[in-house]
Design brief:
alpha+beta; 336 residues; disordered C terminus; Bacterial polysaccharide co-polymerase-like; 3 domains; 6 strands; 4-stranded antiparallel sheet; two-stranded antiparallel sheet; 10 helices; elongated
Length: 336
């Protein structure tokens, strides 16, 4: 398309531009204003703050990083959703929940922290106070069950490993087949130590140090406004009108491109392979009147009659010409 074709397309499709502009103007006037969403944020504190002690059955307690790791698992999020009664998907819970861990030992923490070693702040945002508190408390309980289950699994693994090692030594004693440099007395001492340790494991319960240090409380109410820039009715109307005009102009150009009729001299020249030497002006052109006079002078002159066969005489006064506008021979002259 040439530059003139774009202008012609816009002129021919002016009605599309007007219609779509009015539609956009109407939509801009009736479009809703901005929406204000309110979120209630509750905060609780969990973890195992120092001093951390060692447990004879499970060793050192879980660190804050380990607790945060389990807190982000899908199992904990799904359990929290079910316990709270909200039944939200895990990805929704993850978006509404934030875990703020303890500050780094070297003081290089850049994000928000709980401000205390071993303590994790749990922040939950929900549309209502009840939902925020319910989800926060359910998450704290689900996280505690998860870390306790992990500790119990570790304890069971220690029991199984100790039993396997004790059984191996007992087999060596019964078969009198010892590793080089190992005496039966040394094996007896090792068996006694393993039996005592196994007895301790069997009667022990796992201890992770995890506890809810601070119950969930509503800390703040967050209000977020969406679309505040379009609160002005005039601005929405202007934006709708502009978009409508642009849509109408694009549709008009698309219709021009899809129309394959010969509307310009250049298209006719490309289609037939001959140069265009003249164009018929439109009705609104200034050259319409000279063209009409030329047409009358050429096509309204009498045309010669076809040749006769010689048997039909001519009437007196009959002209050998025929009126091109009537298309019949003139009759005999009237006798008065």
């Amino acid at each position: 398309m040439e530059r003139g074709d774009y202008w012609s397309a816009l002129i021919r499709g002016w009605w599309l531009i007007v219609v779509f502009g009015l539609i956009g103007l109407g939509l801009g006037l009736i479009s809703p204003r901005s929406h204000v969403s309110t979120s209630f944020v509750s905060v609780s504190s969990v973890g195992s703050p120092p001093p951390q002690t060692t447990n004879g059955s499970t060793g050192t307690l879980l660190s804050a990083d380990q607790i945060m790791y389990y807190g982000g698992s899908d199992a904990v999020l799904t359990a929290a959703s079910e316990r709270s009664g909200l039944n939200w998907p895990s990805w929704v819970i993850r978006d509404r929940l934030t875990l703020e861990g303890p500050p780094a030992d070297n003081g290089s923490s850049t994000g928000p922290t709980s401000g205390q070693a071993g303590v994790i702040d749990v922040r939950v945002s929900a549309p209502s106070t009840a939902d925020s508190l319910a989800l926060n408390n359910a998450f704290d309980d689900a996280l505690g069950d998860e870390v306790n289950a992990v500790a119990q699994s570790s304890l069971n693994a220690s029991v199984t490993s100790t039993q396997a090692k004790l059984q191996s030594i007992m087999t060596e004693l019964q078969s009198n087949k010892f590793p080089p440099g190992i005496t039966p007395q040394a094996l007896d001492i090792q068996v006694t130590a393993l039996q005592n340790f196994l007895a301790t494991l069997v009667v022990s319960t796992p201890s992770t140090g995890y506890s809810v240090l601070h119950a969930a409380v509503v800390q703040e109410v967050s209000k977020q406004t969406s679309g505040a820039a379009l609160n002005s009715r005039k601005l929405r109307a202007a934006a709708g009108l502009l978009l409508g005009v642009l849509a109408g102009a694009l549709l008009a150009m698309a219709m021009w491109l899809l129309d394959r009729r010969l509307k310009t001299a250049k298209r006719a020249q490309h289609a037939f392979g001959y140069p265009v030497v003249a164009e018929i002006p439109s009705a609104a052109s200034d050259s319409t009147e000279p063209y009409r006079m030329l047409w009358l002078s050429v096509f309204r002159e009498p045309l010669p009659l076809p040749p006769l066969d010689g048997t039909e005489p001519l009437y007196d006064g009959e002209s050998p010409l025929i009126d091109a506008g009537v298309g019949s021979r003139s009759g005999p002259p009237e006798i008065t």
